[in-house]
Design goal:
six-stranded parallel sheet, alpha/beta, globular, 20 strands, six-stranded antiparallel sheet, 8 helices, disordered N terminus
């Protein structure tokens, strides 16, 4: 059931409703949640459990012509306890399909992923932004591909593989898919079915945390690559997975032959350290907080009940970018400290080193 929006949203959002276009949108949404003249909204028409911790949502989008390329991701906005929260998820369906699919793995402290798994049901609605990302096929397809995926990094790869098969691609395709256990392999049955329809596709499932009959075990190494894909230097390689896998692959595959995407920030500096309390003043909100200085600023602010605009939480979308008026932060991705003056920072990649003023 839709709740009356004025109760939960910020004053600025309340004022926005007096904009004629927004007011019309509001009235349309009261008639039917899928109606909107400006927003892309989608109804959940099916939910599939891929693994114990991974679900696929099948979405019927309210606008014809929602466009994306295989391999792209989309911002998904849901309302949790009266707060609008946005996260980015890969699209697992093909552009040619009628309905959109996104596949979401539950994260231990993932606000939205846990909400998706515990609360979203058939018939609920989510809001979508425009599809984004450069992890897509080139216009001129090469004769050979190599895909390396780890964990939920298989999601955009799965969309690309289905698209290649749908286009009757006849070149050689190899997939190395790393998963901790057999039970955590996403799309296991679907990938086996796909290679039956796609004769030039070879799939190798590799388990990193257990031995299981019929599966290779181990982590990505040069020796493994040479054994499984001896002609890897002739292939255009797509890589999507956790930081450790990214680091291993990038140490072997040259940049010009590699297209990669990372769904977790690759941090040079750990987000956690010994507590070092810092005073953070939010100039727009007229609030001053005492943070522990243990994690990135976005997480620390959320821990204190402050929810700045945020998206991917890995430094890609820049939704959480804000102006630091004063103070020093560490950029966790680069491992470097900022100057003490005014500059733009990303909250998800910044850790407070001393007292700060933020224009939030």
């Amino acid at each position: 059931m839709k709740t009356f929006p004025f109760k939960y949203h910020k004053p600025s959002e309340y004022l926005d409703l007096f904009n004629p276009k927004n007011m019309f949108n509001f009235l349309l949404e009261e008639l039917n949640p899928v109606y909107s003249i400006s927003k892309t909204r989608a109804k959940i028409i099916s939910i599939h459990l891929e693994t114990k911790e991974t679900k696929t949502l099948v979405l019927r989008v309210n606008k014809k012509g929602f466009r994306f390329q295989a391999g792209q991701y989309v911002p998904v906005t849901v309302e949790i306890n009266g707060k609008r929260v946005t996260r980015y998820y890969s699209i697992s369906s093909m552009p040619s399909e009628v309905n959109l699919r996104i596949t979401i793995k539950r994260q231990k402290q993932g606000l939205v992923s846990n909400f998706v798994h515990e609360s979203l049901q058939l018939g609920d609605f989510v809001e979508l932004g425009e599809a984004q990302g450069s992890f897509v096929l080139p216009k001129a397809l090469p004769g050979k591909f190599l895909f390396v995926a780890g964990g939920s990094g298989i999601t955009p790869v799965y969309s690309i593989l289905n698209t290649l098969q749908n286009q009757n691609y006849t070149g050689s395709v190899k997939l190395l898919y790393f998963s901790r256990t057999k039970e955590e392999i996403i799309f296991y049955s679907d990938l086996n079915s796909l290679r039956e329809k796609f004769p030039t596709l070879a799939v190798e499932f590799i388990l990193t945390d257990e031995d299981s009959l019929g599966f290779r075990t181990g982590f990505f190494t040069r020796e493994m690559l040479l054994e499984l894909v001896p002609d890897f230097s002739e292939r255009l390689t797509y890589l999507c997975g956790p930081g450790t896998l990214q680091e291993s692959v990038k140490s072997i595959i040259p940049k010009e032959k590699l297209i990669s995407e990372n769904f977790q920030p690759f941090l040079k500096t750990s987000t956690k350290r010994e507590a070092k309390q810092v005073e953070v003043t939010l100039t727009k909100s007229h609030k001053t907080l005492l943070l522990n200085g243990e994690k990135n600023l976005l997480e620390e602010l959320e821990d204190n009940g402050i929810y700045p605009q945020s998206g991917c939480r890995m430094g890609i979308c820049h939704t959480c970018a804000c102006t630091k008026k004063s103070g020093v932060v560490t950029n966790l991705q680069e491992g470097s400290e900022s100057e003490s003056g005014e500059e733009t920072i990303q909250l998800c990649l910044s850790r407070a080193e001393e007292n700060l003023e933020l224009d939030i």
